[in-house]
Design brief:
Helix content: under 10%
CATH class of the largest domain: Alpha Beta
Organism: Pomacea canaliculata (Golden apple snail)
Pfam families: LRR_8 (PF13855)
Shape: elongated
Radius of gyration: 33 Å
CATH topology of the largest domain: Leucine-rich repeat, LRR (right-handed beta-alpha superhelix)
Structural class: mainly beta
Protein name: Ig-like domain-containing protein
Distance between the termini: 101 Å
CATH superfamily of the largest domain: Ribonuclease Inhibitor
Strand content: 35-45%
Keywords: Disulfide bond, Leucine-rich repeat, Repeat, Signal
């Protein structure tokens, strides 16, 4: 059947595919509705307009039994696919590779006894509905059970909490209550989970499944690597990945062994750590929105992870001032050290030049930054403010609660301040 569409520039629905479907153009996108019972045995030939189809609704097609790559390969822009109240018994593992933009898949009320785990791995699929299918309580639904229990928010399964499968007696049971312990048969191992390298080094990584009852297919996912690599099969069924002349660009990259069968899949990752001397990528000042703190924020590369220290005006900070700041840091997703020294805002004794020193076994890097605060008040204080003296000459005081240094102590406090300093 070849598609014939009338009125492509309007939103007026019209018969197409020899009257089997209704086609409607909406804003340059083609929506196709095929609900006349028994008119389709396979996906209709949409002709040259197939690249414009973004939504396809099929219903009441008792002769439609398979969704596979051939079924969808001409629909590269399809975002919504609904196949309901039909006789689909098979969804192939590669069905979504033909429609990489598919976000919404509704397969309600078909005859599916199992569903491929590849649906759960699609980066674009956001909604999946499987209501009214006779899914079997077998290893083939374990990935779906795992997906529902993970409470992830990338893929929504319609009525996931009440999704059921049929036991050996034909009774429906919620997936959350089914125990599928007999499915733990695919055992996969990698030779290392983390490796430290110097630039120019080579490394060999092995992925194997020698002790599995189910023999899976193996592959290495290496799309993030920039270094030269070779992948080869080993006689014992293992898969060898050799990375040569490692570069700094591959620091903190994951390479993943992917083992899969029609039942399930396993992913095991190896993290590459490429050793290099510290390098301070940035050191900037950031003030919090509530004006309570100023952050001397840094981003430091280096492996092993650098240690950071601070100097204030060229010397280690005085112990008694430690209550006026706090330090924080974290490991970024790129394998760098991110953090900062959080200074209480407008404490004038914290003004000056700060030096950040980042050190590891391979070297050191240094960066400087200057801090100054706009003073709110620089005149004499009254006794009511109860300023506390900060030096012997009582020429400056710290005002509790305001974290601000007064340039001159109030006259009534001079005598008591001098006595306190002598103690």
């Amino acid at each position: 059947m070849v598609m014939r569409v009338q009125g492509e520039t309007t939103a007026t629905p019209s018969d197409c595919v020899d009257g089997a479907c209704v086609c409607e153009w909406l804003g340059g996108e083609l929506h196709v509705n095929c609900t006349k019972p028994g008119t389709l045995t396979s996906l209709p030939d949409m002709g040259d307009s197939r690249s414009n189809v973004t939504e396809l609704w099929i219903e009441n097609q008792a002769a439609l039994k398979t969704l596979d790559l051939k079924f969808l390969r001409t629909f590269g822009q399809l975002r919504t696919l609904t196949v309901r109240h039909s006789a689909v018994t098979l969804v192939s593992t590669d069905v979504l590779s033909a429609s990489p933009q598919l976000q919404h898949l509704d397969l309600d009320s078909n005859k599916l006894q199992w569903i491929p785990w590849t649906l759960g791995e699609s980066p674009h699929l956001k909604y999946l509905s499987l209501l009214g299918n006779p899914l079997q309580c077998s290893c083939s639904v374990r990935w779906l059970q795992r997906l529902l229990s993970s409470r992830q928010d990338r893929l929504t399964v319609s009525h996931g909490d009440t999704t059921t499968c049929l036991t050996s007696t034909g009774s429906p049971m919620p997936l959350s209550h089914v125990r599928l312990t007999h499915c733990d048969t695919m055992q996969v191992h990698v030779s290392q989970t983390s490796v430290e390298l110097s630039p120019g080094d080579d490394v060999s990584l092995v992925c194997d499944s020698n002790h599995s009852d189910v023999t899976p297919s193996l592959m290495w996912e290496t799309h993030s690597l920039t270094s030269r690599l070779h992948i080869s099969a080993v006689d014992n069924g293992s898969l060898l990945l050799r990375v040569e002349n490692v570069t700094l660009a591959d620091h903190y990259v994951n390479v993943t062994c992917f083992a899969y069968s029609w039942v399930d899949y396993v992913k095991l990752s190896v993290r590459l750590h490429v050793k290099h001397a510290p390098h301070i990528l940035s050191l900037i000042k950031k003030k919090r929105d509530d004006d309570s703190e100023t952050c001397l924020c840094y981003d430091v590369a280096g492996w092993p992870l650098p240690q950071v220290t601070w100097l204030h005006n060229g010397v280690q900070a005085e112990k008694e001032k430690e209550q006026l700041w706090r330090d924080e840091h974290r490991l970024s997703k790129e394998g760098r050290l991110e953090g900062g020294r959080m200074l209480l805002y407008r404490v004038l004794t914290l003004e000056g030049e700060y030096t950040l020193i980042a050190t590891n076994a391979l070297g050191q890097d240094v960066a400087n930054i200057t801090v100054s605060f706009p003073a709110l008040y620089k005149g004499p204080r009254t006794a009511a403010l109860k300023c506390l003296p900060t030096n012997q000459s009582q020429t400056s005081c710290l005002c509790p609660g305001e974290h601000q240094t007064c340039l001159q102590c109030p006259e009534p406090l001079r005598a008591t301040a001098a006595a306190r300093m002598r103690r």
